Task: structure prediction
Amino acid sequence: MSDESPLWTEKYRPRSLSEITNQKEIVERLKMFVKEKNVPHLLFAGPPGTGKTTAILALAHDLYGGRVEGNILELNASDERGINVVRTRIKDFARTIPISDVPFKIIVLDEADAVTSDAQNALRRTMERYSKNSRFTLLCNYSSKIIEPIQSRCAVFRFAPLREKDLTLRLKFIADRESVKLDESGLKAVLYIAGGDLRRAINTLQGASAMGGNLTEDIVFKVASRARPEEVLRMLESALSGNFMDARNMLHELLINYGLSGTDVIRQIHREIFNLKIPEVEKVKLTDHVGEIDYRLTQGANEEIQLSALLAQFTSAGCKMNR
Result:
């Protein structure tokens, strides 16, 4: 394994828009901005690991060439989200003249949905005042948390979770470059864990590669601290068949063997409900129960008690269906 960079997510980050092989419609629109050297304020929204940060950094490299540094300011709003940051760092950077043939600089505000309401209102005015010298790009998971006046000032791009074929191409490329042996079962396990998040997929691959040898399904799930989907499905089927204590013992094994949190288990249960061979109306009811238990866990309820209660709901549902 190469020592060039400890994080493969950074080492293999595309440096140009032409290197990005997914989110094609978005990339084509961004390429037009680069061609015209006229970028509006941007708002990138979508799930984590779908290429939002990569897209704006690639745009900056294509736009400024070798003069990226000094023409782009990156801030992480989860750390620097107060009104003072808008009034000092952002304003000081925005008011200065760019040092390139491009007539504006770019200010990137990552995790912008964590910015306070007061800071967003201050940012709105700053975006207006310094639009001649600066363009703002806000990156967020939930665009609904960005105030409407800012949204109306931006061209909005919505990033979707990556398709499995795009994830597969990138993972195989990295595995080949790093001389990692990734078999088909291991690849499917990485794709299951990633859920459309390329950053999570690459980090899982890197973590599993430290084990050495051929990366199999067993290694990937162990490194990722995730239960196998068939184990979760078997637990649910056991509960539905009326074997509550067997299902509860399986739950206990999952929590101990994989070190899962209650939230992790709930997420996997939610995914596997739709693979159960039961009527659609029963899936609706069970999904409703899962949502209720998930809420209780976020409020600090005991994990084992709540998950046992959920399995009890599955057992009760199974008994009614079998009458």
